[in-house]
Amino acid sequence: MTKIDFNLRSDHIEPIQEMLVPGLLNIPVRGMSLKTARGKKLEKGAVVAQHPGQGSADVHASLAGKVTKVSFAYVTMLPGEGGGVAPVDLSSVDDDKEMIRTLRRLGVSATPLMESELLLINGLNPEPGVTSAEALLAHEKDILIEGLSLARRLVKPSRCILVTSGGPEVQGLGDCEVQTVRAEYPASIEPLLIKAITGKENAEGTAVLDIHALWELGMVATTGLPVTEVVVTVGENNWRIPVGTPLRHALAEGGLECAEGDVVRLGGVMRGEAAYSLDQGISKQCRAIGLVKAGEVAPVENVPCINCGECVLHCPARLMPNLITRYAEFDRFEDARKQGLDICFGCGICATVCMARRPLLHLIRFAKEQVRTTLDA
Amino acid sequence: MTPPVIKPLADSAGALVVCPPPHVRTGLGVRGLSLAGLLALAPAAIMAMGNFGLDAARVLALAGSVAVLTEALCLRLAGRDVDVDNFSALYAGLLFAFLLPASAPWWLVAMGAILTTSLGRVLFGGFGSNPLCAPLVAWAMCRISWPAAMDVDFAMAASAMHEPLAQLKYFGVQALDQFEMIDLLLGRHLGALGAVQIIPLALGGVALMVFKVIRPYIPLAFLAGVLGMAGLLHMIDPSLYAEPVFHLLTGSVVFGAFFLATDTASSPVGRMPMILFGLMAGVMVVVIRAWGVYTDGVPFAILLVNLLSPLLDRVRPKPFGAR
Ligand code: SF4
Ligand code: SF4
C-alpha cells in the first residue's frame, strides 16, 4: 500500500527567485468590492478591490498597466508604462488602531495581530508540497525580522516563540525563542501547533503568525508599499510572483509541463485546489503550484461510507469524519455540526486514508460553506 | 435547485482535470478491499477443496455466483448503478459458503446466497449500510429455517469424521480425546467447509493485518475474549469445560475473528469500541457454546454484538479542545 510522506521539513532550499514579468495579469477579486473599471490606467500598487470583511486586506495592481477586462472574479490587466504609488511612511503612525487600518489598506491581513500573551511564529511549511515557508525563513531573514518587530508592537506579547522543523537551513529569528517540533503534517496546523508548544487545547491568549504573513508584514514595513507579490513553491523551487500572474506563465517559468489528464494543484498536496483553467491568476493566498500527473492518485469514488473507521482512527481532532460527511451528503448540516464540524481543522487526513476513497474533505468544506452561508446568516 | 456553476476564464478547449483534494490517497477502494479479502480467503478455499473434495468447490461456486446475480438484480430493480464489478457481493457470497457444510444441497446454498445480498445488504441500503454482518444474517435465517440441512454433524452423517463441538456438547470433555491438535489445525474434522481450515485462514487473516487491510483490534480482541472466557471456565471445572485452545481451533472462531467480526459496516469505528466489540463477541462465543443450544456460537455471538455497534461507537474520546 502507498506510504504517504507527511514530512514538512525541506532539507535543501535554494534562494527565492524572481519570476519574469507576465504579459497579462488576472487579479482575483471574488467577493470584494471593485475599485477600478475597464479602461483605467493603474500605477503599480493602486487599489483594485477592497475586502468588505473585518480585518481583511485590500488587493492592488501588482504591475503598472491598463485594465482590459473586469468580471466578478478577476480584474484583467495588460502591464505597460507607468510608475508606482508613493510609499506610506509607517514610522509616523503611532496609534495601533490606525496602524492596523493602514496595514489593511496596504494589503496585509490584520486578523492574527490581536493583543496576546504569547506570539507563536509558525515556521513550518504548511503542508507537503510546499517549501516556501522554510525558503523564506532561510533566505529572507532581514525582511522577516522587520515584520517581527512590527508584529511585536501590535501583539505586545510577553513571550515570542519561533516554531521550526529543526531543518539545517532554518535557524533562529532575531531574539525570538526557538522551539522545534516533529515536522510531520498536520503539525503545521494552528491548533495543533499551539497544543505542541503550550500543551493546551484551548489556548487563549496565543497569537499565531505564519511565515508568509510575517514576510508580508516585513515587506510593508521596509518599503511602505502595498503587498503585490507572493512567494510560491513551483515544483521544486521557490519564486516571487506578482499576484494575478496566470498559471500558464508560472508553470512555464517554473519548468513544469502540464499534459492531458494532469491536475494542476494550487496549494499543497493535502488541501490544494485543482485549477480549472491555466488562465487563472495566482491569488495572495497561494503557497504552491504543482502538477499531479494523470493516474498518479487513485480517483475519488462516489460510494457510500463502508464504516471502516480509518478516518476516525486518524483524525487529529478526534472527530468522526465518517458521520460528519454522511450528514453533509444528506444536507443535515445541524447534525454535522453536532458531530464537531466546527472543530474540524480541514486538514484532509481523513480523506487521504479513506478506505472507500470518498471525497471527505470536499464534503466537509461543502458543509462548512453551507453552515456559513445559510445557518449562520 | 442547485445554482449554476460559473467559472470565469474557463475555456472548454484547454480544460484541465479538476478533482477534490487531497492529492494523495492510501485507501484501497471498495474493489481493492474485496480483492484483498478474496485473496486472503483463497488458501482456505483451496484447502477446503482438498479436504472435502469437489463438494466444497460446488458450494463455493454456487454461493458466489448466486450472490453476485442477486445483487445485480436487486440493484437493477432499485434503479441503482450495478456495481457488482467491485467484487464485494462475490466476497460476501463466499463468506456465506464458508459457513456451510460441504454437503449442503444446492437449494440451500442458493437460498443462503440470495439472502446474503438481498436481506443482508440491499434491504438496508447496500454494502456499507448493513447493520448486521450480511453472510451471518443469511446463515441465521437458514439455520433456523432448515436446521437439519444446516447442521454439519447431521448433514455429513455419512462421513467418518466427527464434529468436535457436537461431541463436546453431547458427550462431554471426555469425548475430545479423539481429536489430535494437528487434525484440528489441518481441518481434518467435520465443520463448516471453510471455517475449519484453521491454518490457511489464520495466514490469510494475518496477511490482511500486515497489509493494513484490516486493523488488528477486532480480531485480536475477539481471540482474546474466546481464550479468556474459555480459560476461566476451564479453570473453574476442567472436567466440564474444554481447554481454551480447543475452543480456539474449533468451529468458526478463527474465521469469525478475521473475516466476519471485521465486516466494516456492522462493526464499530474507533480503537476502544473495536476492542470492546471484539472482546464481547469472543466471550459470547464461549458463553453460547457452554450454555446455549447451538454448538458453535460464533455466528450468533457476532450477530449479537453487531446490534451493540452503535452503542459501542459512543465510547469516544473528547473532540479536540472540548471541555
Ligand atoms: S479534515 Fe478530517 S481528519 Fe482533519 S480534522 Fe477535519 S475531520 Fe479530522
Ligand atoms: S475512512 Fe471512509 S469508508 Fe472508512 S469510515 Fe471513514 S468515511 Fe467511511
Put the structure in a nutshell.
The complex is a heterodimer of chains A (about 375) and B (about 325). Chain A is an alpha/beta fold.
Polypeptide structure, described:
The complex is a heterodimer of chains A (377) and B (323). In chain A, the strands form 4 sheets. Chain A has a 6-stranded mixed sheet with strand order 1-14-13-17-15-16, with helices on both faces. Chain A has a 4-stranded antiparallel sheet with strand order 2-8-7-4, with no helix packed on it. A 4-stranded parallel sheet of chain A has the order 11-10-9-12. Chain A has helices spanning 96-105, 132-139, 141-155, 190-198, 211-223, 247-254, 310-314, 321-329, 333-338, 349-353, 360-375, and strands spanning 17-18, 25-28, 33-34, 41-42, 47-50, 59-60, 65-70, 74-79, 118-122, 159-164, 177-180, 206-210, 229-234, 237-242, 263-266, 273-274, 288-292. In chain A, helix 3 (141-155) crosses helix 5. The mean pLDDT of chain A is 90. Chain A folds into 2 domains: 1-10 and 87-297, Rossmann fold, CATH 3.40.50; 310-376, no CATH class. Chain A has 377 residues and is an alpha/beta fold. Chain A is built from 11 helices and 17 strands. Chain B has 323 residues and is mainly alpha-helical. Chain B has a single domain (30-314), classed as Ammonium transporter fold. Helices cover 58% and strands 0% of the residues of chain B. In chain B, helix 2 packs across helix 3. The two termini of chain B are 39 Å apart. One iron/sulfur cluster is lined by residues 305-311, 321-322, 354-356, 358, 360 of chain A.
